[in-house]
Sequence to fold (286 residues):
Amino acid sequence: MKTTREIISDCLNGRHPIERTNPQPGQSKFYYMYPQENNDDTSIFDAKIIDIPDNYLSPSTISEEPRSDDIYNNVISDILYFSNYDYDQRLLDDTTADIKDSEGSIPYPYLDTKGYITIGNGSSVNNWEDFRRINWLANGHPATEEEKRLAFNRFNYLKNPNNFGGKSQYVQKIEARRFKNESKLRIDDDEAQRLMQTHLRQDLQHTRRQFSDFDRFPQPLQKVLLDIQYNTGKLKQDKWPKLYDAISRKNISDMANEVHRPDVSAKRNKWARDQILSIPPEWAVE
Fold:
């Protein structure tokens, strides 16, 4: 961890410690978090230095002991906090909590609403290579290749709606818990978390490629876009033209209408809509 003196020196010399790992065209290499009057500390502004008012600069700013001024200390606390906590990870952590609330965590393989083999917090393992790479447990012990193949074949068989329970029914209507006894494979919490973080980091990269201004979006919009990509894997303009158009126009009302998904729960759709409607109106006129 850097000392207060080192952090202030970095700021005053245009070397703020938070650095983008993959800056996009038009983005600066470094960014910082500017403390808002409404205590919203999630809005990103590109800059080389943080704006510390001149009247708060004095010889004491390069000492180990911070000044007692409230404004100065608020600025310093933000710098200390964000220099030791990757912003991407904070966004992923917040999104993880929301997805866990809507997806739940299933430790055994099941077929999702589209008939894909799924595990954990909605991670798709529908092809053999993805499936076999999972750290599966069978009766508490690492699963063998044969046990993995047996389970994978079983779930591919169950994809036919006529094969589940000997009845003709659609997979979409079968709850995940109904698949609990279809195999002995399980994953632990650590594996579920690993899968989710890997999934989300890939989704974050994809979403940044889709929206060049993603890092300037309000966090509620960032979280909803990540959730859509995590859930559908199809966040593209040709799939969501009206949503992309609403975002380009910064029309919060239209955005709230366009984040609806027919294949997710009412709870999840309400969460997405509420997130969009929580965006401050001021963002639309920036």
